[in-house]
Amino acid sequence: MEPLLTITASNKNRLDLNSPATQWFIKSIQWQDYDNFELLIVDSDSKNYEELKTYFSSNKFKIPIRIIQHKIDLFSRSELNNVGIRNARGQWIGCTDVDMVYAKNFVSTVVRASEKNCLIVSRTMYWKKALQDKIYSGALDFLNNIDSCKVGKIKKRSSAGGFEYMHIESWSKVRGFDEKYRVWGSEDRDLLTRTEMAGIKTKWLGENIETIMLFHQEHIKKDIKNDLEWQEKNKKLLNNIKDYRANLSGGWGGIKD
Questions:
Q1: pTM score, whole prediction
Q2: What whole-number distance in Å separates Cα of residue 175 and Cα of residue 184?
Q3: Which domains does the chain have, with CATH numbers?
């Protein structure tokens, strides 16, 4: 039997049902050729949370979409991802972002690569607006001619990836993402370091233009100054990793243990 898996993504005022970026994120989840999974969105007090909740609960999607809320004062990709991990229905769990677009064979490729005690990470291609507009307009057919849409910069391994995937036993072993990292930046590099320390091997997907399956949509950066400040603060934490386990004082993902 095909394994049930959960893909979880964090959100705070990013999802907009009227925006092409959100429409393409949802569309690319729904067209996957592997369908035994759910999408779980963990929301941090977005202004349109109730609208999103109503939309996802009242529409019958091929791939089920759930949204739950975890209110925190300061957005934290680490903490919200952990909440997703701890509320997942699947035993295999991937963490991603709501501004991504996925090739139709992305999830099936991840499933084929899955094995216990292994972290699967995918590199990401960043689209430019001009190319993206052609995809949105239909001038380029992403679903049936993906090669025509493979124009952009592939994120370096040193910046980790846009998708992190493990079995719940491995997530529990390292206790998820380290919640000391706030906003976003470096939490994925921290995870790579600690899984290596824990003896969990790493597999990379999308290492070149022929195999890339994960794409980042360009969008307006709402608070670049704040993001950059937190990225610099987070980088300093990477020099102080002493244990493969994170969040040792208390619980993680909103659950005390």
A1: 0.94
A2: 18
A3: 5-240 (3.90.550.10)
